[in-house]
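Posted in: Structural Biology > Protein-Ligand Complexes

Title: Requesting predicted complex, phosphoenolpyruvate in pocket

I'd be grateful if someone could produce the 3D structure tokens for the following input. Sequence and ligand are given below.
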Amino acid sequence: MNRKKIIMGNWKMNLTVPESTILIQKLKKEVPVSTKAEVVVCPTFIDIYSASEELKGSNIKVGAQNVAEEEKGAYTGEVSVLALKGFVDYIIVGHSERRNIFGESDKIVAKKAEIAMRHDIRPVICVGETLHEREDKLSKVVVLSQLEASCKHLTGEEIAESLIAYEPVWAIGTGQVCSSEEAEKMAEHIRGLIKSLYGEKVSGSVRVLYGGSVTSASSKSFRKSKNIDGLLVGGASLNHQEFAAIVKNYGEKKK
Ligand code: PEP
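-- Reply #1 --
Done. Output follows.
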């Protein structure tokens, strides 16, 4: 199955509009145009419109970090999929910071994945265990139960178009990278669950990403992972040279 590699930068709540404009200008110069991988940056909501304008005609796409679970209405402070439509190709849903800081349940994540897909925007469904769960040897159980519940409103065809990001919580922003062997094993379990729920064709099409303290140095180790198709990068995506180096190191991966 030919799955296109992807490298996504999650800028979180770190940049102002002028700062994101500067970063975009640098990325446009630095990210190799020759890369065969898809490259995506996910700015904050207020930066999305200007980012999508500035990146028009480049090989860098725009994603959102979140979306409201409802389409429209009296939801003060929320941003709807209708507002994002036309400006983003991807929406991250269920990031561990959303789950853990803002209390988003699998039920909410499932609604967000569904609403994104209904508007032809690919959801990037994040799953991952905490350190405590890892120490209790519950990683696989936790990840697969989050995944099954978060995908529950999507059809097999829609899952095939979606992305699943394995992001162990203990590796996010901690500098502790999960080994590529361990991440590959989890990606295999993820693909196995998708196969048992939706069949072989879907499991062979869905793209599985790894995220958690990836740097240009560690990105190389994921090149050989058969079941990992991309990287979700937080901190390192704020540095144009680091992010461009990750695209170079990982994006040229041969399957
Ligand atoms: C993330 O937040 O999705 C992430 C992977 O962050 P970091 O790379 O900083 O660990």
